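In the previous lecture we treated proteins in isolation. Real proteins rarely work alone, and many bind small molecules. This record shows how such a complex is specified: first the sequence, then the SMILES for magnesium ion.
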Amino acid sequence: MFREIPTVLTAQEIIDKVFRRAKKVEVQVLRNRLLMHKNLSIAKIFTARDVAVSTLKRYVDKFPYINKMHPFYRSLLDLLLDKNQYTKSLGSVAWAMGRIEGLADKYYRKIKGCGDVECAVKYRREFYGRAASIIKQISPHLQFLAQAREVMKKLPEVDTSLPTIVIAGYPNVGKSELVNRLSTAKPEIAAYPFTTKGIIVGHLDTPKGRIQIVDTPGLLDRPLEKRNKIEKQAILALKHLATLIVFLLDPSETCGYSLKEQENLLREIRGDFHIPILEVENKVDLLRSDSPRIKISAKTGEGVDSLVEEILSRIGAG
Ligand SMILES: Nc1nc2c(ncn2[C@@H]2O[C@H](COP(=O)(O)OP(=O)(O)OP(=O)(O)O)[C@@H](O)[C@H]2O)c(=O)[nH]1
Ligand SMILES: [Mg+2]
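The predicted 3D structure, ligand included, written as tokens:
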């Protein structure tokens, strides 16, 4: 869906492309010089119109309708770009298309009525000038769409029909290390918080079918309005994607946060989302608590097989 969005040219690039193509237009040589020049001017403005309109139409056609998307993408895009501006920008591209088409019709009629060659040339130039100015007018909208494309290209490809395990927890507890071990995704792992800055999707093929494993940015225990954009993406994944939440804790506290803080967050998530949660303690190679929680080491792989079995049985695939 997002991979098909074409590169958005700048207004100047579109203008250059339009006139480059119009310049190449030739018509049949006629003995009637006036008729030949009128034909030439008309052929050029029609080519200019076609190039401009088809370039702009691709944007209108290929940029997706945010309102028709799955709620996960809808809310993610709400977070990452100005949705009103997006709608407005696509609207003004469509407006420019219509204006250029109307202008080409108008100048076609004007040129048709010309009584001398200079008149045909004059109207052709006038058309060029006005078409270029329409394209220049939408320049900020083209710029916005170019940025929107960059945002959309980086969005995770989620398959909302697959059972989805969302790995959540405090920063630095080892979520990405676990996703790395479990799935096809290879997220960055580092010994500092907020390494993961967006949603990362991987897959795990099991004898019972494919499941989706989602890595999320770390969450601090704080109210939603205090959360930054990076944390909010994790919340959206929990809210819209999770069949099961694997909540990862780090009792060794080498993540830099106390177990108590992490457990507060766990409690909040239990309260906010009515989605099954599997509590898992990571870094058992450093510290093994006496809690009844599942214990693993994402780093050494210890306990990970039993975790997968537990996940499969919880989602009814085991
Ligand atoms: N000893 C040990 N270290 C681990 C384990 N799992 C992860 N780590 C280390 O903990 C650090 C953080 O791991 P990440 O996987 O990046 O943590 P994260 O939860 O994804 O962090 P953010 O993306 O910042 O929220 C890295 O240095 C990992 O190598 C483990 O089981 N044992
Ligand atoms: Mg991470």
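Summary for your notes: Residues 175-176, 187, 195-196, 215 surround magnesium ion (ligand 2) (CB under 6 Å). The CA atoms of residues 78 and 313 lie 35 Å apart.
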